[in-house]
Amino acid sequence: MSDLIIKDSQLSVEAVIEKLKAAVPNNKFGILHAYNIKQTLADKGQTLAEECHVFEICNPVVAKNILEQDMNLASVLPCRICVYTLDGVTKVGMAPPSKHIAQLTDKDLSLLVEGVERALIRIIDQSII
Fold first, then answer.
1. Whether the predicted pLDDT of 123 surpasses 90
2. Are 19 and 26 spatial neighbours (Cβ–Cβ below 8 Å)?
3. Average pLDDT over residues 7-27
4. What residues contact 115, with CB distance under 8 A and at least 6 apart?
5. Is it the case that residue 1 has pLDDT exceeding 70?
6. How far apart, in whole angstroms, are the C-alpha atoms of residue 12 and residue 21?
7. Which of 91, 115, 121, 127 has a C-alpha 20 to 30 A away from that of 18?
8. Measuring CA to CA, which residue among 84, 85, 28, 36 is closest to residue 57?
9. In terms of DSSP bridges, do strands 52-58 and 30-36 run parallel, antiparallel, or are they unpaired?
10. φ/ψ (deg, to 5) at 74
């Protein structure tokens, strides 16, 4: 069973992205980078049939707190949310930080990480309706 959190939307990829761009700052995060993977691959001569966008987002206060506890966790920051299609269905997903951060550190960061995860799920939920 996958640990990924993936939700379907009746909206187009473009509509979900617009809602995501509004939901991110409303939840005290910022978009650091946005990638159009389909376009990037096309620019390199590769064709991807499905849409695929990846957004790197960050709450700077929480990121600082996490890095002060364990600088090795820089390898899993910033958080990522993806918007893509699969068989004509728009999907929004993420790898939950509570799963991979707990596996990568012996520090108890559960209070920080659980808050981040709840916020990311809110962002996804606000993006898909």
1. yes
2. no
3. 98
4. 62
5. no
6. 14
7. 115
8. 28
9. antiparallel
10. -60, -25
H/E element, 60? helix 60-69
Closest CA to 63 of 45, 75, 51: 75
Given a contact cutoff of 8 angstroms between Cβ atoms, the answer to whether 25 and 126 are in contact is no
Q: Which residue has the tokens 């002060």?
A: 68
Q: Tell me the backbone φ, ψ of residue 73, rounded to 5 degrees.
A: -75, 0
pLDDT averaged over the chain? 94
Q: Nearest CA to 79 among 99, 59, 64?
A: 59
Structural domains of the chain ordered from first start: 7-128 (3.30.310.70)
Please answer whether residues 10 and 88 qualify as being in contact, where contact means their C-beta atoms are separated by less than 8 angstroms.
Answer: no
Q: Write the single-letter amino acid at 115.
A: G
d(CA 4, CA 24): 19
33-54: per-residue pLDDT in tens?
Answer: 999 999 999 999 999 999 999 9
